[in-house]
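Model: You mentioned two targets. I'll fold them one after the other.
Researcher: Yes, keep them separate.
Model: Target one:
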Amino acid sequence: MLPKKEKVDADFKYKPRWFFITFLIVMLSIQSLHSGYAMGTYNRIGDIISTQFNWTPGQQQTYEGLISALLVLGITFGRLFGAKFINKGRKLCLLTSVFVGFVAIGLMMPLNIYIFLLGRFVYGVSAGLFSAVGPRYVEECSPQQYLSLFFTLYTFGISLNKPFVMMADLLIPSDKSVFPTTNAWRYFILLPAAFGLFCLVGTLFIVRYDTPMYLITQRRYTEAKEAIKHMFEGDPDKIFEYMRKNTSSETDKVSFKSAIIDPRYRRGTLVAMTCALVLFTNGIYPISSYGDRLFKKMFGKDDPTWTSTLTLNTIAIADPTA
């Protein structure tokens, strides 16, 4: 039953519960680690994997190409599927990305190249699903006047996670004589399961609700008011009425054709596509994936590991932060 309407000013402002929004941003920033971690994983464990599979140089080149390509294909598929799947629920999409990530990690554990390749694709799907829902969760749980601040914090949180991934190099032995038998590469792949577990527990027991805006578009008004009480300070009835008047499900249903042609959306689509092209052509992904090998090529056996790691960390922080 729809609550009694109250008059709410167009410039009505309300505040978040700071513990909730801080936890949400931290949790989503940690979970977003999967995409960058996936891009950089093989850079760290490639030599061990190729040794244990006993690849020839030709086989190594072929399989490494497939390992990278299937990951990107999985991210693309997950992102496209996620754009539709979030209409089933932001919380459901977030939890699905976590569970798919667990499956992918399990698939990459056996020493079987075909299962490993499948795991890389599935891991990409998990990262792609999250990339569709993570920013939307921040947007729909943020009061309008705080939106730019919270997005900045979310992006900065992502950038701080990347150096942590690179520091996971400590799991990889420097002694190449142990490469044929070491399980260090498995530990390296298994590490993101901890981040997924943190996101799973946090979503179920602290975040708890879907976003109020999504619940309102689905006419789940009672649940929406409970979510508002959980996430925001102030009169929940007034906040609910403000959201109800200013929330529409229309953008969830925009077709690809409309996004390109419709005057209401095409400018935003053009800006987004331009930014995406800049991101993918600025060299950050090749640097993240193959930076370690570039330093080895440049310095040979004298490769200063900590200097190269520091340089890559600086790039990883500067790119998304900027």
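Model: Target two:
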Amino acid sequence: MAADKVMVVDDDLNIRLVLKYRLEREGYQVLLAEDGVDALEKVKAEKPDLIILDLTMPRMDGFGFLEEIRNNGRANAVPVIVLTAYGYESNRARSLELGAVEFMTKPFSPRQLVAEVWKILGAKRKRVLVIDDDASVRDLLAGLLEAEGCVVDTAEDGPGGVEKALAGDYDLIFMDSRIPGCEADEATERIIAEKLKQRIVITTASPNDESVHRALESGALAWVSKPFGIEDVRRIKREWLE
């Protein structure tokens, strides 16, 4: 999956370069623009996933840019973090009114800003829980899912998996048919009892195992046979996540 694109709009070259360096270290693709006019052209051409926006710039300031993208279809849905040296309450209020999702002031912590970017973009991704006592299977499935843009948590036994499932908000759960601590059907029943619409897919090395059928009767949606590959994950993602 292609890296998320983050556009930094600021007339200060040093800030642009510092953020480019920090964001690229975290795996993001970074676009740079020196003012609102430059940014508008790049939004149309490059379609960024998130924008970090200064307010005080030549040619077109941050407020002018926000007003323009409000009326620009897809661009209107791009989350914007305002980053400004003028942290007046009036500037915050107007930024949020024009559609910004966050307002931060200079001087700023690049680490904190990158964490905010991760939080915003991570919230757009599907969250998946993998429950399996085999570390190699957990790592393989987590890697395949992350390559498809998912945020993945793992658990190595039934009780731990149930605890995470009930405490978290997952779009999908992959659960081994034979997990230590409790049977897959018992874990499925406990999860479904509290989260009626929770989607659970059973993974198994033995499709004819009675535990698979019991888990399906308990509310699991489907099963996938081990070993599995990227095409299996993409199929399940299309059927149950998209």
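Researcher: Noted. Anything on target two?
Model: The chain has two domains: 5-123, 127-240.
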